[in-house]
Amino acid sequence: MRSEIVKLLDKIEDEHGAGMADNTLAHVRKIMNWHATRTDNFRSPIVRGMARTKPGERKRDRILDDK
Fold it and tell me: Cβ distance 12 to 24 under 8 Å?
């Protein structure tokens, strides 16, 4: 199942960018964790390191002006 998630994230990254893949991973992780709290035999296939970008890479500069 982990390989299927990786394929999904690869496709999303190719078509929509690494940020969107990370956003999708966050939603899937939340669903898997929710399910794990309600099931005795479920173990989430999502592991640390599956994200496509690092938080520092997603940071943007914002400049405000009076225009």
Answer: yes
CA distance 47 to 38: 19
Q: Alpha-carbon distance 15 to 36, whole Å?
A: 30
**How many angstroms from the chain centroid is the CA of residue 48?**
11
Instruction: Return the residue matching tokens 């956003």.
Output: 23
Residue written as token pair 């640390």: 48
Cβ contact 23:58 at 8 Å: no
Mean pLDDT of the chain: 88
Is the per-residue pLDDT at 15 higher than 90? yes
Q: Alpha-carbon distance 3 to 11, whole Å?
A: 12
